[in-house]
Amino acid sequence: DIVMTQSPESLAVSLGERATINCKSSQSVLHSSNNRNYLAWFLQKPGQPPKLLIYWASTRGSGVPDRFSGSGSGTDFTLTISSLQAEDVAVYYCQQYYSTPFTFGQGTKLEIK
Amino acid sequence: QVQLQESGPGLVKPSQTLSLTCTVSGGSISSGNYYWAWIRQPAGKGLEWIGHIYISGSTHYNPSLRGRATISVDTSKNQFSLKLTSVTATDTAVYYCATLDGGYVLNYWGQGTLVTVSS
């Protein structure tokens, strides 16, 4: 299985400031046939299902604000929130879909400082 | 937009079989647009992939479940289902059904249903 490791485990950022979450996979999730990274990011608020933010490492999901962006390739990826809003408080997960079983990172809890 | 709703018993006894159904609305399960997936999340913990199915009947399961999971599709009811046999307390979790766009991207999720394994 591909192991996904996120850092930090928790993060406190002031409103309006930048938040950065990292995700590292135990093996590359870049497919050579199409040069795509098989990596997604989700946001989960308490009592709610996860919501898709980013897929193919850098493509925003439907309706996702442009303050959310994804970057990286191969084994190292980053989710950036350019200007933190109060509604962004949540747990964030990365997930690889390069090979089954699809696996998730352990989550990063984002709070307001 | 596709909507998903999980249903099933909230309490299952140890060693018995957990059975859940996901009802799909806003689209046909037979359309071939999506694969259909199950994911679970123990309280306060992270997400675990259970498996997924395509309308052709092709399935993929997480080996960590040691062959206990079976996912099936009922096109007449626009539903897909999960059966998990020989459950123990470690199977207690919120179970989510979700769509898998192209077999890769989890784009729509149900609200989740809590299943507790206890005698």
Descriptive key words:
heterodimer; A: 113 residues; mainly beta; seven-stranded mixed sheet; 0% helix; globular; B: 119 residues
Question: What is the topological layout?
Answer:
The complex is a heterodimer of chains A (113) and B (119).
Chain A: E1 4-7, E2 10-13, E3 19-25, E4 30-31, E5 36-37, E6 39-44, E7 51-55, E8 59-60, E9 68-73, E10 76-81, E11 90-96, E12 103-104, E13 108-112
Parallel strand pairs in A: 2-13
Antiparallel strand pairs in A: 1-3, 3-10, 4-5, 6-7, 6-11, 7-8, 9-10, 11-12, 11-13
Chain B: E1 3-7, E2 11-12, E3 18-25, E4 34-41, E5 48-53, E6 59-61, E7 69-74, E8 79-84, E9 93-101, E10 105-109, E11 113-117
Parallel strand pairs in B: 2-11
Antiparallel strand pairs in B: 1-3, 3-8, 4-5, 4-9, 5-6, 7-8, 9-10, 9-11
Notes on the protein architecture:
- The complex is a heterodimer of chains A (113) and B (119).
- With 113 residues, chain A is mostly beta strands.
- Chain A contains no helices and 13 strands.
- Chain A has strands at 4-7, 10-13, 19-25, 30-31, 36-37, 39-44, 51-55, 59-60, 68-73, 76-81, 90-96, 103-104, 108-112.
- In chain A, strands 2, 6, 7, 8, 11, 12 and 13 form a seven-stranded mixed β-sheet that branches.
- Chain A is globular and about 40 Å long.
- The model of chain A has no long low-confidence stretch (mean pLDDT 97).
- Chain B has 119 residues and is mainly beta.
- Helix content of chain B is 0%, strand content 53%.
- Chain B has strands at residues 3-7, 11-12, 18-25, 34-41, 48-53, 59-61, 69-74, 79-84, 93-101, 105-109, 113-117.
- In chain B, the strands form two sheets. In chain B, strands 2, 4, 5, 6, 9, 10 and 11 form a seven-stranded mixed β-sheet that branches. In chain B, strands 1-3-8-7 form a four-stranded antiparallel β-sheet, with no helix packed on it.
- Chain B is globular.
- Chain B starts with a strand and ends with a strand.
- In chain B, 37% of the residues are buried.
- Chain A binds chain B through residues 1, 38, 40, 42, 48-52, 55-56, 61-62, 93, 95, 97, 100-107, and chain B through 46-49, 60-64, 96, 98, 104-107, 109-112.
